[in-house]
Each structure stands twice: as structure tokens, then as C-alpha cells.
Specification:
The protein is an alpha/beta fold. The chain has five helices and seven strands. The protein has a seven-stranded mixed beta sheet, with helices on one face. α2 packs across α3.
């Protein structure tokens, strides 16, 4: 019996890992110091709406709500991480100012968003660029960790704890 349970668990883990490897961006948790640097670089203000595309365990969402008094939403495709992130927002007592959505970041609602956080891949950033340019309101900020938005000029380049670049972009008033 234990052998069968072990085999079943191994099969589930292999399927989950295989599925995750097919995604446009692998989950790589961001250290908390870098999360704070990104939110400071974006100049997040109280009451602003922060959107983390590919939110993983929800650490950006929780810190944006708890330390910056922002309203924060995370979009995540992995249902296990969605459950983890939702639990974390409850434990951190920020669930009233946060939402964790199980969904596709490529069709996320960008209306009313002030700050978008990206720690994805070059391919995912490329797929999102046109939507970000067209659907975000003027003045909205985008911070991309490690991967730039090709063809866009960053307003500022910060540095993560590990030395990797943090690119700050702003949607222009005139498009």
C-alpha cells in the first residue's frame, strides 16, 4: 500500500514539474529585500493598485498591502501557488486589500492599475508589452526584474539584492 502511495505521489510531482516547465516563466521566489526595492522603485503610494503578473506565492501582494498600504492583486496560473498565496494574505491580515486570482496573466484586467510587477521571462515580457502599452493608464509604472522590455527606454534602473537589474518604465501621458 505504501509503495503505491509513493508511486502515485511521485507521478503527481512529475506531472506538476513537467507542467511548470511548459510555462512561459518558471517560479523563482524573489527575496524580500528585492521585493521592497522594487516597490520603492515603483514609488507605490497608499491606496494605489499594484498588479503582480505571475505572483507565485504572493509575496509582492502581501508586502505591497502590508507595508505600502496599497491594494494589490496577484495573477497566478499554478493552482497550488494560488492556494498558498491566498493563505498567506489571510495569515498576514491583508486579505481585505488583496486578491489572488487563479488565471492567465495574458488576459488580466489592467484597468485602474497603477503599478505592474514583472519577474517573468524575455518571451513573457514580449508577449505582454503591447497590452501594457495600450491598456495601462498614462502614468502607470511597470517594474521588470532582470528582463527588460525590449525597445522601451527605462525611466530608471535599480539593482536587486543579488545585483540583477530592476527596470522601471512609465506609461507616457501622450501615446
Amino acid at each position: 500500500m505504501i509503495l503505491y502511495l509513493g508511486i502515485a505521489l511521485s507521478a503527481v510531482i512529475l506531472l506538476w514539474v513537467g507542467w511548470n516547465l511548459r510555462l512561459d516563466a518558471l517560479w523563482q521566489p524573489t527575496d524580500r529585500m528585492t521585493v521592497r526595492r522594487i516597490l520603492h522603485l515603483a514609488l507605490v503610494k497608499e491606496g494605489e493598485h499594484v498588479l503582480d503578473l505571475g505572483c507565485g506565492d504572493g509575496r509582492f501582494v502581501v508586502i505591497a498591502a502590508r507595508e505600502f498600504a496599497a491594494c494589490a492583486t496577484g495573477i497566478e496560473v499554478d493552482p497550488a501557488r494560488v492556494l498558498w498565496a491566498r493563505a498567506w494574505t489571510i495569515l498576514a491580515r491583508v486579505s481585505s486589500r488583496t486578491r489572488i486570482v487563479w488565471g492567465n496573466m495574458y488576459v488580466a484586467d489592467l484597468a485602474g492599475v497603477d503599478v505592474v510587477i514583472l519577474f517573468l521571462s524575455p518571451m513573457a515580457n514580449c508577449k505582454l508589452q503591447e497590452r501594457l502599452r495600450c491598456e495601462l493608464k498614462p502614468g502607470a509604472r511597470i517594474v521588470s526584474y532582470y528582463h527588460p522590455l525590449w525597445g522601451w527606454e527605462p525611466e530608471e534602473i535599480g539593482v536587486a539584492k543579488n545585483g540583477h537589474p530592476l527596470y522601471l518604465y512609465r506609461i507616457p501621458e501622450e501615446r
